[in-house]
Every structure is written in structure tokens, then in C-alpha cells.
Specification:
heterotetramer, A: about 350 residues, alpha/beta, seven-stranded mixed sheet, five-stranded mixed sheet, B: about 425 residues, Rossmann fold, five-stranded parallel sheet, two-stranded antiparallel ribbon, about 5% strand, globular, binds thiamine diphosphate, binds magnesium ion
């Protein structure tokens, strides 16, 4: 066990898997000699060589396209996209090829690519370093989509993602790389060392894909969320003095419907929170699914707290970010509904 | 506004009703282009992109440095495979017209590309074909019945009913899954070759795109990655002059040959007579040897002509002269190899006709067997639960539920 | 007034706008001399010249990227993407540039690009000629998304799309190009000439973006749908003998929430239908929005009838396509809910 | 596995702690490369991509065919603009260190590219800059206060608070909006130029990308469309040797110059000494004249060096020698033009120092004014409702509702 922040936990996951499985290779912009702009691959090229930790041309579509070919030839590529905001040039390869290869070839070909990408806002990164595009990927059939909310989960889920023979899009909420940000930019940042999930085993372990985590238990309300918003929700619930289940979805696809509906059937009230814009965001699917499964148990409308429907605005970051105040307002409205 | 326009709009040399005109095609004499060592630098090999490597002259006589070391038997086999491909195409084209399959794409006139290249490569080399490379599948012993069953989406379909016709694959034969999206397989080939290099293996990869598809991003990605990592890969551009209704000028072919596209990255390019099986074989062998020796990627442009319609959905008489193929200066690859073999005394008109007849029967027999596994309209049918398999390695709960829902629904209906 | 099928109506819209506004130009694969693989641009190059109806290289990203620049220089480009399935190489230009240009430049730059793309299944096109990717676009802020369901609407909406200074993604359900397909592939196809919406004015008219249409009125149930499914729903409702509002969303973004909620508040029951896969499809947003707005009026769970969560399978087209039987099953379950 | 690997991995010539080594850079003598007519064919101009167009020699004396027709006053003005750009960079770099702005990117060492090219183009020409082209904004009279306010995201920010620092635009100055996404502006420039040609206008477009960004799809799209339609556009690759931590070999620069990238499409390429303002000016003038004459696109590679860190988030000592810039054989563009002017008798050390002092004051005064309109942390603040404007031409109902919701929420908090 060590104290790790999320960067160290990701680095450790990569290290452990590369050690264990010589077919695992890393490909991405600045990931090699430099160790990545967020340092997630720090030290790995020195340890595993230039042929397993490979600096790539600046071409996200080329990185994903060649990773597919690498995977077809028996290696297990982990591609880093420097920011989730830059994944779009690679979308065609993800949508048309990576997601469908196994299906279209009748199960005979597949490519076990994992794509890691730092996502989310709260770092004054403006529109090109703050996006949360996860919803787009959850509409695809054939890729799994994951977003951890702690170092412990990040390592365990990343190991599962890499070991999975299905392609996985692994989003890393970069705002919580260094600590469990609670949504208040004016407070000093808490480091992971103060958080139980900052305790991470040094060696191998894994967390299965497809299982949500109940991170807080209560019977008055269910809050369903993921990524950075898990911590914002926890803080809001503390301040609201409401007894809430807080569920960290963790794996967006395949979704652990069971854990979600169990909670909502119990509480009868549900709030969904994410950073991405609301309209057609992943919260829409969560809301629709829960409504379908739990309709007769609902005592108030399911509400969504999410980013506004604008591009991510640099100066208005804290008005845009769905912080504690917005979650509190959501909780209030749900609890007051009759 | 338009009267003053200075935008250059590429124009094909002839439209329907006009006389075909291939004067834009720059040709070299058979044997005129020399063969550099496979260890030549990219600069030393640069002339290969500007000329046209040809082996067989108008009389079918092999000329020059590039004459490949192929036995008469091998050449007859190549002829047989080209004819078989053509007969296969014939059969499936007709099947589509009869409503037995939903769609089809012929490789008429381009058979030498797949057969010549396939023969020059080794079984362990991995091929990433485009939709007009059926010859590669035939050459690598994919059974005709299997190919036909794919087109029929029937109970023996290798794609389990999930793909349109011609989107074959052959795992054992090292033939990748054909995609309906243009050029996407190009970076896959490069990645595969990178992995081969990483593992220190000798196998190389090869891939194919059409002239029109070179405008796609994946073409650029593939060339860039191949150049940066010196991946052992052969990247082919099959320039059949047309991309549906637009001629190759709309892909930027007006000023420079496609073979030159990698020059800015130091990738040697070879422009080859794509209807000359011997030349195709020879340049492929050169590129493969070079790649295996660590010399990195080669780009090969095959100058050929799309003899048929783009697909069964297309009517080329709307945009090009009806008789354009007949005027194509590089002729028909089958006729050219036949002439060569006849000239060399290894083949005759009678043998040729007999072979064609025999292949026709082979194909017809395969077809009869294939349709016994079902057609689009007539039984046996694939079990519908197969629709939910292979989206993921294991079927997730949600898909199991959907499968059940569908089966229950079908139950209430029948 | 003429009898037009949807192809002719689209052709007529383009013709009318090009005639009226010399800055309108068309760009796309095979759109020029040939007139498009679906013939939507037939005759336009002959009429308006090679410099206004331009054959493009096969590069969807290049078509959209250059269209943006053309639009910035005062022309009004209409780009055709040959099949919606091939729009993904152009997604980065749509998401990162087209959608955000006005916003990021403080309103000083914009590019009035319209992107037309035939979409949807039912034509035995397999996975690469059958997709309905509209959901992805509806999550973007800064583009409008439209899908007509008749020749009359197609012409009126396309004219509005081209005239809009906002970028518009205009999806054309190609299964109903020639007639109002009701979901039954075994019946002879009905032509548009037998349908009132096949009557189309020859000249200029427009239908505002952002307004849904109530195509059928009833008080027992609301069916919310768009594209080909409008006709499938109509047929199903006829067979079910239920009195339903059928609402054709038409403009997916911006959504006409008002018309939808008015109906659901009236009927208390709602079914949503679309061809695309259900998970994170546009139906999720419709469901979530309606649940939020109409919760207290709902007498049964909102249900979604949609494509299964697999790639579009060639041989199983009619098991995959959400046909009348699935809508009927949905109606039944909603009407029986207590 | 790795021991046998044959994958070629590009390696920079020196890493931290090692001595800088630019022997890989092929250089030409000043004046050595001849200037073809602007009507030259792409083939006739091909040598320009392989050599290095230089005007000023080591003593600052202008040499050869490419000496531009610039008056001493114009050259002094160029020097002033480069110095102003550098001083502006200095000020904003410090502002970031002080926490006044969130981020910054200098153009240190690359100032001649923007200033030399900007001067050679006409006001009606449309420029599509990358993030290191601040010189173009300064040259085209964007007020320093406006530029600073953009970086401050304050009440006078041209982007209305919506963009990170350096993502400027200037509508009146025909400067397009800078994007944070690499290379996306390249096809825009081509499209703009196509429209100019369609309208029969004389204006041309120009765009810039870095060496690293050439691997992106948009680079390929832009070149392809520019070649097909012969668009009047100048496409620039600013090869500053680095792309964050990877050297230009990772973009495929090991074997051929970036100037050669368009050759496979018949686009002439010029490799120019990017730190030689006179050479940059001259080649740009050549390309612009050619484009206006209907000669189509030109690709210009500017060989230069990224003197500073990639951005304020970067620490280059982790991946390259600290003193690499000092060893760069093409020196510092400011010092080189200064030497030329001093040598020609139009400038002196004293004038230079006085000018620097004066520019420092100008920039400082601008900064003081700029912060009076607010900083990231201190008042006046933009009205939050601005966040919901300009997503669409008109604010749709949903966004109005969201705006109200936010304002109401803020009301309850304060
Ligand atoms: C990404 C993508 N865009 C468009 C299409 C539609 N399409 C199919 S084939 C074709 C023409 C391709 O021409 P070329 O590359 O020359 O190949 P050929 O058909 O001549 O063999 C087009 C535009 C597609 N399949 N994929
Ligand atoms: C599409 C995209 N991918 C990645 C990035 C992250 N990124 C920003 S700058 C940069 C390096 C660019 O290098 P180069 O093109 O040489 O320009 P330079 O910074 O040297 O001027 C990278 C990778 C980005 N901004 N956009
Ligand atoms: Mg072709
Ligand atoms: Mg650079």
C-alpha cells in the first residue's frame, strides 16, 4: 500500500500491467521520453524501452488507427489522447472500426485497444482543455466507457480496461488528478493523501468493469454521478444535511442498472449530476433508464444537474461548472416536490 | 459571380458521347524503367514514381530488369486465378441482378493487382484489403462457397449476417476484415507492421486503397506513421481512373502520379502498369524484400481501369464514355497475360477456353452449394440471437434482455 | 404545386435557394456532373455552373473544413455527405470548429454551413449505409439538427437551414426518399404521390426551424418521433386503434419542448420512437426532458422503442428495425400500465 | 521482445546534459538559391524545397536573387515589430507567472515568420493564424490593449471571456479566430481562398501550422483541396524543431524537409531561413504573387527554433539541452536583422536600446490600461449572461431559461 494521487495510480497501473504482460505497449503524444504532459507515463520508457512506450506523431486518428492494427497483431496497446478535447480526429476510427471490428468479422477479429484521455473542467483550460465528451461514446455499441473518481478506482479499473479484450475509452477527470476537488475553487485543494481512496496497493489488483459503487449511503435521495462530480456531490450532501445514496457510476457502458435502480427504488428520489452539457448528455440516458425501471417508485421528478448548453467558457468557469450550489438547489427542489 | 471565377475545376478527358482520350496518361515502354537494388535510398528510387514499370510489351514479350522469376506453371496459375476472380464476379453480379444478394462490386479489369501482389507476398504477411480485392481472398484459398455465403448473408456467412456483400475476411488466411468505410484499413496495416517490427518478426503488411480514397485522412496518417517508424508495409493505391463518378483528378491526380505521394516523407513510390501481372508481381517483390530488409514502407500506384460500374448501384454511362475501357492503353490484364503465355508457348486459345469453361462450372457448383445455406429471401435463416453476439466479447446483460424481448415479440407474432 | 418525392423536394429547395441567392454553393462527393448518388443535386451543375456545384475529393473532413472557410468568406455552402455513416471523419471540424466559431470569436465570425446527409436504415445497406447518428450532434452546442419526414417538410426546412446563419446538420431519412414507408418491407412501397405531403409548392417557402409538428391528434397517448418512424408510428396507431397524438420533432435542436409537453400533459402517456440504438440515443433526451416537465401528469412510464444496441446488421434488418410490431408492443404496455 | 525490435524510433540529436547538435540541419549559403519566375512550373521550382532560401549572410549582408525591395524605413519597422512582439511576450509571460492570466505561449525566436510574412501580404488577404502568430496581430494593428484583454478574459475581451489566452481574432484586420485545436484552420484557409477564386477576387489566404501539426488530417485535407482547385493560398509550416517534447522527426521530418510535403500533389514548396526576415518576406512575396496570378498554392517551410518553453505549462529542460537555442545555426531573427541594418548604416546599438526601452514603456502602459478592465481575479467582471450569447445567432429559449436559472441561483447566494 502507498499513498498515491490519481496520476501515480495510473502510472502504477500501467507499470504493473507492462511488467506482467510483455505485449502491453503505450502510444501517444509526448508519452515517451517526456512521460506525458500530465506525467502519467513518467519513467515507463526508461523502464520498458522505446519500443513499448512510443512517442507518436500529433495525429489522434493515426494513433487510434495504428493502435487498432497493433492490437490485431497480438499486442495490447494503450493509447493516450493528450486531452479528451482532442479525441475527435480519432472518432471515425473509434466509431467505424474499433467498436465494430469484432461484430462485423463474426467474432474473428478484435483489437483490445484502451484509450486513455484526461477530461473535464475546473482547471481554467478553456474550451479546448475542459470537455467531457463521454456521452458520445456511450451511444456506440462495441466500446466500453469508464471514468474513475479516485486513485484506487483508477488503478483497478485501468488494469481491467487494459486486460479487457473489448476496446475501452478510459476518461480521467484531470481536475481530481491531485486531490478530491469538492467544487469550491476558493478553498485550498485537499490532496489524495487525506482521502481513504488515496491508499493504493502497489501491486496488481483489478476492479471489474460494469459495477457502480455506492460511495455514500442514505435513504432519502439517490444521487447518481461520476468523475469529479462524485466529490462535489459528497460535499453538497454534507452541507444539505440530507441522507443520500451517492452512486459513482464508474463504468458508463456497460451500465450497472441494477445498483442504480435498487437505490432509486429505495429512496424514490433521484438527482443525476455530470459536468458535460445537459442536452443529450449521459444524464439523459441515466434519467430515461431510471424512469423506465423505477417509475412506480418515484416520488419526485428525476432532476439533472449538468453543464450549461454552451461551449466551455474560460472566464465563467465557476458559473458553468455544476458546483455544490447547483446540486444543493437540485436536492432542495427534489426533496420539496410533492 | 461565376463568370469571373478562377477556381480550377478538374475535368475528365471525355464525357458520355465523346471519344475516350487517355492522352493524359504518361506511359513508359515495357522494360524501359530500370530496377534499383532493394537497398537503394528513397532518392535513388525516386524515378520509379514518375515512370511506369512495365514488363510485357504489346506482343506479350517480357522485357527489361523487372522480369520476375516466375515459372510457366506459376504464370498459368496466375491466369487461372484472374479468370476465376472474373468468373466469380460474373456470377455474383448476376446474383444481384436476380435479387439474390443486396449489392455487389466487381473488380473487372483490375484482377492483376490482387493476383500479382498476392502471389508475391508470403502466407505470413498480413493483408488489409479494400472492397475490390476479392482476388486476394480467392488467391489465399478462401473457399468460393464461403465468399458467396458472405454475400448471401446466409447461415454459413463468416460475418454472421452482419455485413453487406463483399465485406469478407479470412482469419486463417491473414486477410483482414474489409470495411465499408474508405481507407480506414490503411493505418491498421501500418500498426500491424509496427507490431511486427516491435516483435522482431519478419512478416510485413500490405494494404490497398483506390485513387479517390487517397484524399481521406487515414491515407495521410498511414503514410506519416509508416515513414516515422519505417514500418515494414506496402501501401498500394489502385488508380483505376474513377471514384464513382469523379475521375482521378478530383483526388489530386492531375499534376503528379499517386506514386509520388510519399516522397515528401521519403517513402519510395513505384508507378506500375497495374494490368501487367508480371510487373505488378515484380514491384511487389521488390517492396516486400525491401521491407523485410528493414528498408521501411513503399507506396505502389497501380495504373489500371475500372472496367465495370462502381457497384451494382451505379450506372457509369451517365458520366463517362461507354467504350472508355476499350480505349484504355494498358488493355485487359487477362488478355495480356494470356498473350504472353501463348507467345512463350505455354498456353493456347483452346486451353484458355477450356479453362474458362471449367471455372464457370466450378463457380456454378459453388453457387449451388452456397444458396443451399440460404439466400436473403429463402430459408434456412440465421438464428436471430446471433444479432446480439460479438458486440462485446461477452454478451452484456442489456443485450441479453434485448434478445429476449425480440424473441418474445417474434413469438407473439408467429 | 407539384407532386414531388423527397429527392425532388430537396432538389427543388436547392434550386430555389440557388436561384434566389447567388452566394449559395454546393460541395460534395459526386454532387456535380453526376448529380449525387441519390440524385438530390441532379441538374444543378448544368444550371448553375461548375463553380457553384462542386465535386469534391473524398474527404469528409476536408469538405466540412473547406466549407467553413468558404462560409467565412461570404458564401453560403451546402455540403453533402454521401451517407450519414461517413460523416465521422468530419466530426472534429463540426465539433471543434463549426459549432464553436461564433461563440469563441465573441460573435464576430461565423460560417453558415448546412450539411446534408442521407441517414437511416431499411434499405439493406448494412452497417455503413444505415446509421442514424443524430444523437451525437444533438449533444453539441452551436449546431442545429434537423430531420424531415416528408417532401413538403424537407423542402421548407432545408430552405430555412440554408438561410440560417447557424450551422445546420440536415439528416434525410433515405428510406422515405421515394415514399412514406410504414415499416412493412413485404408490402409494395407507397409513393409520395399518394400522400398529401407529396404536394409541394414549386417556388420559395420555408418552415421555421425549432417547431415540431403534430401530425396526428388523439388524447390517449403521445407518440414522439421523427424521420421514417413518423410513418411507422402512424401505421401502428391505425392498427392499434388507439387515439394518439403523433408528434414529428422535425428539429431535434433546438427542441420544441412546448409542443411535446403540451401533448404529454394532455395524454399522460408517452412513447418515443427512433431508429438509432436506444442507449444514449436522442430518445433518452426526449424521455428525460418530458419526465422533468410532465412528471406530475404521467400515468405510465415513458417508453422508448429504438434500434437494438448493436451495429446495424445486414441480414437482420427487419428484426433490428423498430417496426410496427415493436411500436404496438410499446403502445400496449403503456396503455395497460396502471 | 524489445531486444529484437526493428521499429525505427526517431531520436533527437541531443538530450538534456548533452551538447546541442544541429548537424542534421542542411543549410545553404545566403544568396545561393536562385529565384525562379513566379510563373515557373512546380517542377521547375522543386529545388526550392530541398535547399534553404537565405538572404542575410553571417555579416548581415544581403545576398542573391531573393533580396527584397524593402526600404530602410520598412526594415526598421520590421525590426520594431519583432521587438514589440518580443516585449509583448515578455510582459504576458510575466503576467502568467504572477497569476494574472491562466496561460501563455511565447513566439520567442520565431518573430520573423509573422512579421516578415505579414508585411509581404496585403490588407485584404485573409490570415488563419496558429497560436504562435501573435506577430501577425501586432503587425495588423490590433491594439496591444485588446490583445492583453483577451488574455485577461476581462470586460473588454474580444472573445467575451470564452477563450483561453492567445486565442485572438481581429475581424477588421482579416485575422481569423485562433483555435486551440491544431491544424483545424488549415482547410479553412483553403476554403476561404476557394471562395475568393469563385468570386473572382484577388485576395489570397494564408495559414500557419507547426512542424508537429503536419501529422494531423487537416494538413492533408488542406493540401489536397488546395491542389485540386488550385486555390490561391499560402500554407506555412513553422518548423521550430519541437512539438512540445518531441522533435520534428516524430512528424516525419527525418528524411525530407516539410517543404517537400506538397510535391506529390504538385504544390511547390519553399524551404526558407525562418530567422531571416528578408528571406521570409521575399519568399512570401513570391508565393503571393504566384497565387494572385492564378498559379495556385505554395507551401513554405520556415526553419526556425522555439526559443522558449512550449507554453507556460511546459519545462523544456526535461527533454532538450538548456542551451540548444544558443547553438541554433540560424541565430536570433532580431539580432540578425539588427546586424543587417547596422551594417547598412541605418541603425545603431544606441537606437536599438532606445527603441527597446520605448517599446517596454508602450507595452507597460498598455498593460496598465488592460488590467483596468479587470483581471481573472479582480473586478470589473463580465456579466454572466454573456456566457449564453453567441452559441447561436439568436439565444434559444432553452439558453434563456438556463441563464435565468443561473442568475436566480447567484441571487440566492449573494
Ligand atoms: C468514408 C467514406 N466516404 C464515402 C464513401 C462512399 N464511397 C464508396 S466507394 C467511393 C469511391 C471510391 O473510389 P476509389 O477510392 O477510387 O476506389 P474504387 O471504387 O475506384 O475502387 C465512395 C465515395 C465511403 N464508402 N466511405
Ligand atoms: C488536435 C490537437 N492535438 C493535440 C494538441 C495538444 N498540443 C498543443 S500544442 C502541441 C504541439 C504542437 O507542435 P507544433 O505543431 O510543432 O507547434 P509549435 O508548438 O512548435 O509551435 C500539442 C501536441 C492540440 N492542441 N490539438
Ligand atoms: Mg478508383
Ligand atoms: Mg513545432
Amino acid at each position: 500500500m502507498s499513498q498515491m494521487n490519481m496520476i501515480q495510480a495510473i502510472n502504477s497501473a500501467l507499470d504493473v500491467v507492462m511488467e506482467k504482460d510483455p505485449t502491453v505497449i503505450i502510444l501517444g503524444e509526448d508519452v515517451g521520453y517526456f512521460g506525458g504532459v500530465f506525467r502519467c507515463t513518467d519513467g515507463l520508457q526508461a523502464k520498458y524501452g522505446e519500443h513499448r512506450v512510443i512517442d507518436a506523431p500529433i495525429a489522434e486518428g493515426g494513433i487510434i488507427g495504428s493502435a487498432i492494427g497493433i492490437g490485431v497483431n497480438g499486442l495490447r496497446p494503450v493509447a493516450e489522447i493528450q486531452f479528451a478535447d482532442y479525441i475527435y480526429p480519432g472518432l471515425d476510427q473509434i466509431i467505424s472500426e474499433l467498436a465494430r471490428l469484432r461484430y462485423r468479422s463474426g467474432g474473428e477479429y478484435f483489437s483490445p485497444v484502451t484509450i486513455r484521455a484526461p477530461c473535464g473542467g475546473g482547471i481554467r483550460g478553456g474550451q479546448t482543455h475542459s470537455q467531457s465528451p463521454e456521452a458520445l461514446f456511450t451511444h456506440l455499441s462495441g466500446v466500453k466507457t469508464v471514468m474513475p473518481s479516485s486513485p484506487y478506482d483508477a488503478k483497478g479499473l485501468l488494469i481491467s480496461a487494459i486486460e479487457s479484450n473489448d476496446p475501452v475509452i478510459f476518461f480521467e477527470p484531470k481536475r481530481i488528478y491531485n486531490g478530491p476537488f469538492d467544487g469550491d475553487p476558493n478553498k485550498p485543494a485537499t490532496p489524495w493523501s487525506k482521502h481513504p481512496a488515496g491508499e493504493v496497493p502497489d501491486g496488481y489488483y483489478s476492479i471489474p468493469l460494469g459495477e457502480a459503487a455506492v460511495v455514500e449511503e442514505g435513504d432519502e435521495l439517490s444521487i447518481i454521478t461520476y468523475g469529479t462530480m462524485v466529490h462535489v456531490a459528497q460535499a453538497a450532501v454534507r452541507n444539505a444535511g440530507v441522507k443520500a445514496d451517492i452512486i459513482d457510476v464508474r463504468t458508463l457502458v456497460p451500465l450497472d442498472v441494477e445498483t442504480l435502480t435498487r437505490s432509486v427504488k429505495k429512496t424514490g428520489r433521484c438527482l443525476i449530476a455530470h459536468e458535460a452539457s445537459r442536452f443529450s448528455g449521459y444524464g439523459a440516458e441515466l434519467s430515461a433508464t431510471i424512469q423506465e425501471e423505477c417509475f412506480w417508485h418515484l416520488e419526485a421528478p428525476i432532476e439533472r444537474v449538468a453543464g450549461w448548453e454552451t461551449p466551455y467558457p474560460h472566464a465563467f468557469e465557476w458559473d458553468y461548472f455544476p458546483g455544490q450550489d447547483r446540486i444543493l438547489a437540485g436536492i432542495r427542489s427534489i426533496m420539496e416536490a410533492v | 459571380m461565376t463568370s469571373k471565377s478562377r477556381l480550377h475545376i478538374p475535368r475528365p478527358s471525355a464525357r458520355p458521347g465523346e471519344a475516350p482520350d487517355f492522352s493524359y496518361l504518361s506511359l513508359s515502354e515495357a522494360g524501359a524503367v530500370s530496377r534499383p537494388a532493394t537497398s537503394a535510398t528513397a532518392s535513388e528510387a525516386e524515378y520509379l514514381a514518375q515512370n511506369l514499370v512495365r514488363v510485357m510489351d504489346d506482343d506479350g514479350i517480357a522485357q527489361g530488369d523487372w522480369i520476375p522469376d516466375l515459372s510457366p506453371e506459376q504464370k498459368v496459375e496466375a491466369l487461372r486465378l484472374m479468370l476465376l476472380t472474373r468468373e466469380y464476379d460474373n456470377r455474383l453480379q448476376r446474383a444481384q441482378r436476380q435479387g439474390k444478394i443486396s449489392f455487389y462490386m466487381q473488380s473487372l479489369g483490375e484482377e492483376a493487382v490482387s493476383i500479382g501482389q498476392g502471389m508475391a507476398l508470403e502466407a505470413g504477411d498480413m493483408l488489409f484489403p479494400a472492397y475490390r480485392n476479392q482476388g486476394l481472398f480467392i488467391l489465399r484459398n478462401t473457399s468460393l462457397v464461403d465468399l458467396m455465403c458472405q454475400c448471401l448473408s446466409n447461415t454459413r456467412d463468416m460475418c454472421k449476417g452482419r455485413q453487406m456483400p463483399v465485406m469478407y475476411h479470412n482469419r486463417k488466411g491473414n486477410l483482414f476484415s474489409v470495411s465499408g468505410n474508405l481507407a480506414t484499413q490503411y493505418p491498421h496495416a501500418v500498426g500491424w507492421a509496427m507490431a511486427s517490427a516491435i516483435k522482431g518478426e519478419d512478416h510485413i503488411a500490405a494494404s490497398w486503397v483506390g485513387d479517390g480514397s487517397t484524399a481521406e485522412a487515414d491515407f495521410h496518417y498511414a503514410l506519416t506513421f509508416a515513414a516515422v517508424y519505417q514500418a515494414p508495409v506496402i501501401l498500394n493505391v489502385v488508380n483505376n481512373q474513377w471514384a464513382i463518378s469523379t475521375f482521378q483528378g478530383f483526388a489530386g491526380g492531375e499534376r503528379r502520379p499517386f506514386a509520388a505521394r510519399g516522397q515528401g516523407l521519403g517513402i519510395p513510390g513505384i508507378r506500375v502498369d497495374g494490368n501487367d501481372l508480371l510487373a505488378v508481381y515484380a514491384v511487389t517483390q521488390w517492396a516486400a524484400k525491401r521491407a523485410r530488409e528493414g528498408g521501411g514502407p513503399t507506396l505502389i500506384e497501380h495504373v489500371t481501369y475500372r472496367g465495370g460500374a462502381h457497384s451494382t448501384s451505379d450506372d457509369p454511362t451517365r458520366y463517362r464514355p461507354k467504350d472508355e475501357w476499350q480505349a484504355f492503353p494498358l488493355g485487359d490484364p487477362v488478355e495480356r497475360l494470356k498473350k504472353h503465355l501463348v507467345n512463350e508457348g505455354h498456353w493456347s486459345d483452346e486451353q484458355h477456353e477450356a479453362l474458362k469453361e471449367q471455372l464457370k462450372e466450378t463457380v456454378m457448383a459453388a453457387w449451388k452449394e452456397a444458396i443451399s445455406y440460404g439466400t436473403m429471401t429463402e430459408g434456412p435463416m440465421l438464428d436471430v440471437s446471433i444479432m446480439f453476439d460479438d458486440v462485446y466479447e461477452e454478451v452484456p446483460q442489456q443485450l441479453k434482455d434485448q434478445c429476449e424481448e425480440l424473441i418474445a415479440l417474434k413469438g407473439t407474432l408467429s
